[in-house]
C-alpha cells in the first residue's frame, strides 16, 4: 500500500502526531478553498494532506463567560448564522462572511483564512481589531498568541511545522462596544480585497471613545494593527478632526505594493477612507449598545 | 419593463412573436445536456498541451523522448506532426485568418509568439500522467524581446514578430517588414473641405484594452481516429462544419473523412469560431488509434484563446453650431495578437455607420503583437470604434449645449441614405430607436448626488450566408426541424417556431435538433447574428415545400387540381365547392403518406442574401463613490431595431447579455501583463466579469417598426448590436456623474479616483 | 496519488466508488459516477458552475477533495427533479428563458435551491448577492433573478419547499 | 449599365483613382468577370475578399443575383461576425 497521502484525524493529538511523523511536505486542510486552488495550479504538491474538518474541537462556536471560542475549521457560513456571535461582533462576522461566494462560505474557515497567510485576507484585520487570540497546539503542547502574531508575510505564518491552529477566542465584550469591517473591491462580490479596514471601539455613556483598535488589510506584507490610529480616536466622539488624525495615522502606516489589483497610491488613499467609514459604523454600533 | 411593440400579433401570426418553452430546455435544466467535456468514450485518453512560458522566442529544439517513454503515455505531437500548409484564407465567420496561421496557432512552428502558445501535446491514460509527461518534454528557446502595446508594436524599431510580414494596403508595396499587417481606408467626400467648413471641431483619443469573450465553458473536444482513415470529432463550437474544414486543411485530410458531432456549446460570442484543440486531439488520436479528450483549463482559455483587440481610437469631428456633423476623421489601431487578423476592417466600416456624415475617412491598422491570436468577439471591432465615436459625439453635445439624443437624431441615418462604408440603408428604424430611449421614463428620471446618465448608439451589419435545413413530418402529424447551427441563444426554439408557423401547427408538435456534418447540408457557423435570419430562411423554405407537397397530396386524394387546395391552420381545404369534402389535416395526410407518394420531408440549402443591419441605443445611470472611485450601475435600458422578434424572450436575452458584457468591458475587465509579457490574471478571480450583484435589471425595448422584407417573418440579426453601445454609455454616464471624461478603459476604481484627484 | 474507497449518498442514492486523494469531488462526480451535469468552468471556486449541496450546505465541488465526501450526502443538479417531475426552479428557468447556452444553469439551479431552502421569500438584492458566486456570460442575470423570485412565490403559494 | 461605387482603398489599388465606374453587367457574376477584364486582379479580389451591395442590399458570393440597368452597386469589404 503506498505511503498514506491523505488522513482525516479525529483528534487534535492525532493530527499533531501525523504532522510530526510526516517525512515529506504536508498541507493542512480546513475548508480547502485556498489549498485546492494551489493543488490545482501545481504551486504545491504536498506528500501528505491532513484534513482537520472531522476534529470536534475545531468545529463550532462555544461561548465561555462572554468570550467566544470559534473552532478554526468552522465554515464562515456557520458563523454568519450564529445570532449571538453576530450581535456581539458584527464587524468580525461581516469580515468572515465577505470571503468569497456563498459556495466558498460553505467551506472557508477563519483558521484557513489566517493560516493561508494572504495579506489581503478579509477576516484577519477584523480579528486583530477585536483583540482576538489564536489557540495553537503542537508537539510542544498548547500555546496562545494574539492573532497579529500569526501572519509572517505573504503565504507564511509563525506556526511551527507540526503546529495546528485549534481555535480563535474573541474576548468578552465590555458594554457599549462596536466593531466594523469594510473592504474595497472593484465588483460587489467575489474579489480579493484591494484594501481592508477594521475598527473596534468602546464608548462611555456620553459616546466618548474610551478604547479603540484599528487594523488594515492588503497594505503591507501582513495585516497591520495601527496603534496610532486607535489612539487618535480615544477621547473623541469621532468628530471630523479625530477622524482625520486617525486617517493620517492609517496612511502613514501603509506599506502597500503595486499589483494587478491596485496601486500604492490608491491603497494608501482608500485605506484612510475605509478606516474613517468603519470607525463611524463601529461608533454607531457602540452607542446603540452594540446591536446596530 | 419590456414594452415590446408586438407587430407580430397585428399580422395574424400564431406562433412567431410568442414565448414558448424551448424544445431542448429540459436537458439543460436537468443536467442531461452533453457539452464537449461531457463526452465519454471507452478507452478514452486525456490530452494536455505544453505551452510556452515566453512571450516571444525562437524554438531551437523540442525533446519529447522522455515523455514518450513514460508508461501510460500513448501519443506525443509537435508541429512536425502537422503537414506544411499554405496561406489560403479560411472562413472563420471573420474570414481574415489564414490557414498557416491557424495551424501555427494550434502548435507553434519555429517561433512562439505569446506566453501560452502551444508547443507540444501528449495523450495519456490519465490527466496525472499527462501532466507528468508535459514536465518531461524539454524545449530549448532563444528568448527574444517582445512587444504588446499596439503603438509600441507599430514603432519602426519594435521587435518584429514575422520577418516576412509586409504591410498590405499600402502603395507602393513596402520593402521593410513590419508588425503592421494591413492598413485599410474607408473614405467618402472631401474631409479637408468638410473640416474647413465646420464651425466647431472636437478631437479625442480613446484607448481600450484587450478583453475576453468570457464564455463559462472552456474549449473542449474528443477526437477519435479511425483505422480506415475515417475520423470522428465531438466538440463544443459555433460551427462544426467550420471545425471540420479547418481540421481537414490543417492536417491535410479530406472533408469526407472527418465527421464532426455538435456537443452543446457553453457560450462562444465569436471565440469558438476557430480551432485550438481539435486538430491536435485528432493528430494525437491518429498516432494511437484511441479517442483523445482535450479540455482547456480556465487558465489556458485566458492564456491561449482569442480575446478581442485592445485598440487606440483617434476621433476628430467637425460640426456646425446647429449640430450637423459635416466632417469626421477616425484612426483605429487594433492589436491582432500573434497573427494578422484583428477586426479593424469591420470596426472601420461600423465606426461612423450610424451617422450621415458627408465627408469622412476612417483609417485602420491591423497590428501583430506578442499576445494570443485575436478571435471574433460579438460585433468584432465595433464596440472599440464606437467607444471612441460615441464618447466624442457626447463631448460634442456638451460643447454645443445640445441634448445628446437630439444631436444623434439630427445626424442619424434614415432609410435610403448611404452608409459611410458605401451601401445605402433600406428598412431601418434608427431614429425610432433613438426616440424610444428619449421617451423612456429613465431618460427623465431625477438623479441624486454623484449620479449621472449616459447615452450611446451602436450598429452592426449582421450577415446572411450559407445555411441548410430539413423538415421531416412524422406519421402522427408532428414535425422535426433539422439544422446544423449550434444553439447558443435558444435558436432551436425560433427554428421550431418558424416551421410551426409555416406548417400551421402548434409549437408543441414541432421539435428541433442539431445534426452532425453528415446528416444535414453545409451551414456556415452560428455567429454574425445570422442564424435566425439565414438558417431561419432555409427552415421556412423547407416547410413551405412540405406545404406544397401536402397540398399536392390533398389534391390527389380529392382528385381536384392542386391550385384548388388551400392550406390553413395545419389543414388542406378544397376550394372546389362541387366537391363536398372535409378538410384533410396534416395528421390525416401524414398517416396515409405511403399512398400519396411516400414519406413527407424536404431539405433546403441556400445562400441567404439581404441581412438587415441592426441599430441599438442605450441609456445608463451610474453612481460614483468620489472617495474610492467605484462606479455602480443603477439603471440600464437598451432599445434595438430588431425587425421582428421571433421569440421575444430570447431577443431580450441577447440585449441583456450584450449589455452585461459591455458593462464589464467598460468598468473592470482587462488583461494585466508583467514586464516579461506573461499574463498575471488568467482566471475569473482577477479577470473581473460582472457578477449578479453588480448589475440592476436590464430593461429592453424591441423596436419592430422596420421588419426585414427579405426574411419571411421580417427578422433581422440581433445578437451582436447590444455589445456596441455600453462602453460609451457607461463612460458618458461617469462623465455626467463626476465631470471627468474617462477616455481609457476600463474605468476601474484606481483609474477613476486618480482622475477625480486631478492626476487623470 | 492513491485511491480510497468512498461511501456517500448522492441524490438520495447510496453509492460507493474509488476516489483519488488529489481528485476533486467535481472530477469524482463526473469521471467516477458519470454525473456530468455538474460542470467545471474554472476549477478555482470563482464561477459556481460546479455547485453542489453537501450535508445541506452549498459548496463548490471543485474546492473539495473526493475523500471528503465519505459519509456525507451530496445533492447535484441530477437530483433536483424528483421522480421525473421538474422542480419549480427548473420550470421557471424554462418559462422565463432564464438560460441561453445552459452551461452555468446547473450551478445556478443548485445554488438557487440552497437559497430557497433557507429563505423562501428573498428580495431581488438577496437573490443577486446569494447568486454572486455563479457567473453567467449569456443572460446578464435579469431573467435568472426573476425566475428565482417567481419560483419562490410559486413554492410559497404551494405551501413551502418540496 | 450599372454605376459602380467604392469607398475602400483596397479597390483603388486596382482601379487607380477612379471611385465611380460604369460597368456593363446584368448579374454579379457578369460584374466580376467585367472587373477582372478591365482591372486584372480586381475580379478575384472582389470574389474572395469583398461583398457587393446592390441598391443597398448586401450580397456575398451571390453570382446569380441580378443587377438592374440603373442599379447602384457598391464594393465593400467582406463582413464577418462574432
Features of this protein?
heterotetramer, B: 760 residues, alpha+beta, Aldehyde Oxidoreductase, domain 4, five-stranded mixed beta sheet, 28 strands, 24% strand, C: 162 residues, Ubiquitin-like (UB roll), DNA polymerase, domain 1, 5 strands
List the helices and strands and how they pair.
The complex is a heterotetramer of chains A (292), B (760), C (162) and D (82).
Chain A: E1 6-7, H1 12-21, E2 26-29, H2 35-41, E3 48-51, E4 61-64, E5 67-71, H3 76-80, H4 83-88, H5 90-96, H6 102-105, H7 110-115, H8 123-129, E6 133-137, E7 143-146, E8 151-153, E9 156-157, E10 164-170, E11 177-184, E12 195-203, E13 209-217, E14 224-225, H9 227-233, H10 240-253, H11 264-287
Parallel strand pairs in A: 1-3, 2-3
Antiparallel strand pairs in A: 4-5, 5-10, 6-7, 6-10, 8-9, 11-12, 12-13, 13-14
Helix pairs in contact in A: 5-8, 9-10, 10-11
Chain B: H1 7-10, H2 25-30, E1 45-51, E2 57-63, H3 65-69, E3 73-78, E4 89-90, E5 97-98, H4 99-106, E6 111-112, E7 118-124, H5 127-136, E8 138-143, H6 150-154, E9 180-188, H7 191-197, E10 200-208, E11 220-224, E12 231-235, H8 240-251, E13 258-262, H9 278-288, E14 292-295, H10 298-304, E15 311-319, E16 325-337, H11 344-351, E17 359-368, H12 382-400, H13 404-411, H14 430-439, H15 441-444, E18 451-460, E19 465-473, E20 479-483, H16 491-503, E21 510-514, H17 531-558, E22 565-568, E23 571-574, E24 584-585, H18 586-591, E25 600-608, E26 614-625, E27 630-641, H19 648-667, E28 698-703, H20 726-738, H21 749-756
Parallel strand pairs in B: 1-14, 12-13, 16-17, 20-21, 27-28
Antiparallel strand pairs in B: 1-7, 2-6, 2-8, 3-7, 4-5, 9-17, 10-15, 11-12, 11-14, 15-16, 18-26, 19-20, 19-25, 22-23, 23-24, 26-27
Helix pairs in contact in B: 8-9, 11-12, 12-20, 16-17, 19-20
Chain D: E1 2-6, H1 9-15, E2 20-23, H2 28-38, H3 42-49, E3 50-54, E4 57-59, E5 72-77
Parallel strand pairs in D: 1-5
Antiparallel strand pairs in D: 1-2, 3-4, 3-5
